[in-house]
């Protein structure tokens, strides 16, 4: 039986497991996958690389339309490029991470990236899992299923410092909370749970348990329950 294309929005703060869960769910169900954080990181990388002051919203707004960002949607190898350069590695540096919230708060940047995200979702014939901060509230308010992942700051910091090969837990926790605060308090399209999103607290769940939970929610939606 052919399944209807399903649009799944997965939002939540940093380190709650959005990317790991979204990629695995998309791969398991044969859906496309879009990492919207990577797009904001890519435009931030371009600003830094082109000498734009990332503390100057007017300067950022003036050039927000310039970089050409291309996002891959294969969950096993998503990939991202800016003006033809593969930036999958460079967008994960500490410098980009520390500047991305300021760049992504600029309305002209959000308008540009939101339009790109909607066109990618509309082109996904078999359906798509889109992860970010404002997917359920702003980018795809008519998504078939909205999930909001949460986890305690302690769990998130432990996960991130594991990734960063034993980085100091306290410093990692403070950096996560600072980025969440900036993302939640910006005027345009802040990080927020949509009213009709299902909240999943992942603090005490393994990644596999979270994936199974989300796969079940998607399958129920596809079955029309
Ligand atoms: N339930 C879980 N239990 C343990 N570790 C997890 C769990 N979910 C994710 N992780 C690990 O936590 C780290 C962060 O996960 P991930 O990158 O998926 O989060 P994220 O919400 O996408 O973060 P960000 O928004 O900062 O990109 C990864 O190393 C991942 O393997
Ligand atoms: N829908 C989104 C997604 C991300 N952002 C901004 O990008 C930053 C990086 O996101 P990661 O998921 O790669 O950590 C994030 O801190 C936000 O500033 C966004 O604004 N909207």
Question: Can you offer a commentary on this structure?
Answer:
It is found in: Cytoplasm. It is an enzyme of class 2 (transferase). Pfam families: Cytidylate_kin. This is Cytidylate kinase. The strands form 2 sheets. The protein has a 5-stranded parallel β-sheet with strand order 2-6-1-7-8, sandwiched between helices. The longest helix has 17 residues. The radius of gyration is 17 Å and the shape is globular. Helix 1 packs across helix 9, helix 4 packs parallel to helix 8 and helix 7 packs across helix 8. It has 9 helices and 8 strands. It starts with 5 loop residues before the first strand and ends with a helix. It has one domain: 3-Layer(aba) Sandwich (Rossmann fold). A hairpin with a 2-residue loop joins strand 4 and strand 5. With 225 residues, it is an alpha/beta fold. Bound molecules: adenosine-5'-triphosphate and ligand L45E5XJ5. The site of adenosine-5'-triphosphate has 16 residues, from helix 1, helix 7 and helix 9. The site of adenosine-5'-triphosphate (ATP) has 16 residues, from helix 1, helix 7 and helix 9.
């Amino acid at each position: 039986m052919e399944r209807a294309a399903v649009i799944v929005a997965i939002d939540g703060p940093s380190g709650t497991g959005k990317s790991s869960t979204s990629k695995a769910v998309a791969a398991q169900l044969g859906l496309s996958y879009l990492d919207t954080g990577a797009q904001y990181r890519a435009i931030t990388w371009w600003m830094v690389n082109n000498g734009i002051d990332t503390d100057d919203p007017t300067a950022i707004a003036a050039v927000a339309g310039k970089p050409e960002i291309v996002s891959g949607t294969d969950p096993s190898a998503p990939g991202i490029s800016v003006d033809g350069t593969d930036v999958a590695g460079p967008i994960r540096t500490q410098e980009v991470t520390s500047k991305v919230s300021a760049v992504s708060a600029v309305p002209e940047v959000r308008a540009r990236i939101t339009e790109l995200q909607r066109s990618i979702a509309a082109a996904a014939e078999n359906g798509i899992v889109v992860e970010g901060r404002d997917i359920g509230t702003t980018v795809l308010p008519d998504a078939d299923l909205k999930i909001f992942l949460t986890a305690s700051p302690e769990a998130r910091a432990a996960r991130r410092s594991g990734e960063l090969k034993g980085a100091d837990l306290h410093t990692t926790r403070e950096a996560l909370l600072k980025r969440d605060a900036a993302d939640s308090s910006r005027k345009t399209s802040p990080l927020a749970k949509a009213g009709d999103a299902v909240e999943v607290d992942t603090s005490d769940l393994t990644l596999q348990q979270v994936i199974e939970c989300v796969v079940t929610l998607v399958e129920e939606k596809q079955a029309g329950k």
